[in-house]
Write a structure and sequence with these properties.
There is one protein chain. The chain is α+β, with helices and mostly antiparallel strands. The protein has two domains: 81 residues, SH3 type barrels (Roll); 27 residues, no CATH class. It has three helices and seven strands; from the N terminus they run H-E-H-E-E-E-E-E-E-H. It has a five-stranded antiparallel β-sheet with strand order 4-3-2-1-5, with no helix packed on it. A two-stranded antiparallel ribbon has the order 6-7. Strand 2 and strand 3 form a beta hairpin. The longest helix is centred in the last third of the chain and has 13 residues. The termini are far apart.
């Protein structure tokens, strides 16, 4: 397996998802471990902050948005997930009323057991 292919497999296994809050643990070297990411200096990241939200996941890098709205492309292995993204509940409209998918599932279970 080539290094770039290994990077893709490891990134997929990392569990990082769009919406996750992450902390940058360190800088990276250009194309380190098969990523396509250019070198970032510590001073660059010190100026902009070391935490952000994952906005995109590419096959060979992760895009994070920092609090000051700057975005950086980073390899997954320099990131630590500090808070997992919690998706909004799926809402379903029944006769003009909105219910969450979980509420309907619980009601159906209660009806069946009922």
């Amino acid at each position: 397996m080539e290094l770039q292919e290994a990077y893709k497999v490891m990134q997929a296994a990392s569990g990082i998802e769009v919406g996750d809050e992450v902390k940058v643990l360190r800088t990276n070297k250009t194309n380190e471990l098969g990523s396509c990411v250019l070198f970032h200096t510590k001073s660059e990241l010190d100026e902009l902050g070391w935490s952000g939200v994952v906005t995109d996941i590419y096959s060979n890098s992760v895009k994070i948005k920092l609090p000051d709205n700057h975005s950086f492309i980073m390899p997954f292995f320099v990131l630590e997930v500090t808070k997992k993204h919690e998706p909004e509940p799926t809402m379903i409209t029944v006769k003009g009323k909105e219910y969450s998918e979980d509420t309907l599932a619980a009601a159906m279970k209660q009806y069946v057991e009922g």
